[in-house]
Write a structure and sequence with these properties.
By secondary structure, the protein is α+β, with helices and mostly antiparallel strands. The chain has one domain: Histidine kinase-like ATPase, C-terminal domain (Heat Shock Protein 90, 2-Layer Sandwich). The protein is 48% helix and 16% strand. The strands form two sheets. The protein has a five-stranded mixed beta sheet, with helices on one face. A two-stranded antiparallel sheet has the order 1-3. A hairpin with a 2-residue loop joins strand 6 and strand 7. Helix 1 packs antiparallel against helix 2, helix 1 crosses helix 6 and helix 4 packs antiparallel against helix 6. It is globular, with a radius of gyration of 20 Å. The termini are far apart. 28% of the residues are buried. Keywords: Transferase.
């Protein structure tokens, strides 16, 4: 079997926009394939709760544990679908769905997030916001107060915390890291993905990181 070669630029490197697009398509595919079995599990849980064969099951701690885990998994997949998936061109995300994603991101970590961006928004901008929140969570795993604000086309994600993981080398992936920079781990992959996605959208990232917080703007 033969495979078509990946398009290359004049200097022999794979084009950055092609890489970003392939990564996004992979994210969309994985999330799409995971949503269906989670839905089937949810339907099975509902059927068990409605069944009269086990009357004590609905209020049992075991069922509560399953429901909480299922809800958390669905929320995480929804976040990953936006953050890692395709931006969808001109698709827009309703305000309620955006707010739900932000709320789920806050629950998953230890961040208190204030969203100051009314109205619907382009899926591409929301993708950058969610990736930015993941970067903030990595930098401030002990908790932070985060504000998401929008002014026209410009976005600002500002976080304040008592302490941060000060790693400028990792944050350099939001722009153009120097040759030989340490590769991020799997748990830090959102840093280079944010840089790639922003470059593809022609939205340069501006960032700052201190001992007391961080800012990401685009």
């Amino acid at each position: 079997m033969e495979y078509a070669p990946i398009p290359h630029s004049a200097n022999g490197a794979a084009r950055q926009e092609d890489i970003a697009n392939i990564v996004a398509l992979l994210g969309s595919r994985l999330c799409h394939d995971l949503i269906s079995p989670l839905g089937a599990i949810g339907n099975g849980v509902e059927l068990l709760q409605m069944s009269g064969d086990w009357p004590a099951l609905q209020s049992s701690p075991e069922m509560s544990l399953i429901e909480d885990a299922l809800q958390a998994a669905r929320a995480r997949i929804a976040l990953f679908r936006v953050a890692f998936g395709s931006a969808g061109g001109s698709q827009r995300l309703p305000q309620a769905e955006f707010a739900a994603l932000v709320a789920d991101a806050a629950k998953a970590g230890r961040m208190r997030i204030t969203l100051d961006a009314p109205g619907d928004h382009g899926r591409g901008a929301v993708k950058l916001v969610m990736l930015s929140l993941m970067c903030m969570e990595t930098a401030m795993p002990w908790g932070a107060s985060v504000t998401i604000s929008q002014s026209g086309r410009d976005w600002l994600i500002r976080a304040e915390a008592e302490r941060t993981r000060h790693n400028p080398t990792l944050w350099a992936w939001l722009g153009t890291p120097r040759s030989g920079s340490a590769q991020p781990s799997a748990s830090e992959v959102h840093f280079p993905l944010l840089g790639l996605a922003a470059a593809e959208m022609s939205r340069p990232i501006r960032w700052s990181l201190t001992e007391a917080g961080a800012e990401i703007a685009f």
